[in-house]
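in:
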């Protein structure tokens, strides 16, 4: 029997500049090259960039679509999951992923980071929010990376420890 694929989530801004988009493409490419599957929100910006990187490297992309239309997914989503759940779909992403890479992002990304930490999904921040150790937040769940390579390597390490 085949082992379960590692599922890495990528979360981040929907409206990003070219530099952030290119980082997301590189993260996606590295995820695919590792043999892992990508899960994300399936729309634009960081989500599209990560999907593009995975898609072009021949990997699998899953997009958890907030609206009611399959066609809302970016063109690199191979498996769109249409939810009609708006922002609530973020929790599907954080519960499904073995680890998350956060790139850039605004309050939606922050909600995914908080949701992930709340349920024990580790997060690697690549130029995203900085979450200080607050209350019962474990420093074993939040890591910073300074490059796409470091972010994906740490996410894979963390994910392998959860399979």
């Amino acid at each position: 029997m085949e082992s379960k694929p590692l599922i890495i989530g990528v979360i981040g801004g929907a409206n990003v500049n070219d530099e952030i988009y290119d980082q997301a493409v590189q993260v996606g490419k590295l995820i695919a090259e590792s043999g892992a599957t990508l899960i994300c929100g399936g729309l634009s910006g960081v989500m599209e960039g990560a999907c593009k990187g995975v898609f072009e490297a021949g990997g699998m992309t899953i997009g958890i679509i907030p609206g009611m239309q399959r066609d809302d997914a970016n063109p690199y989503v191979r498996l769109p999951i249409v939810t009609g759940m708006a922002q609530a779909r973020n929790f599907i992403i954080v519960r499904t992923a073995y680890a998350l890479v956060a790139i850039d992002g605004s309050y939606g990304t922050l909600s995914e980071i908080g949701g992930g930490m709340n349920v024990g999904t580790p997060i690697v921040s690549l130029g995203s929010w900085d979450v200080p150790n607050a209350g019962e937040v474990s420093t074993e769940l939040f890591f910073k990376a300074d490059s796409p390579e470091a972010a994906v390597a740490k996410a894979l390490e963390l994910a392998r420890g959860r399979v």
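note: The domain at 7-160 is CATH 3.40.50.450 (Rossmann fold).
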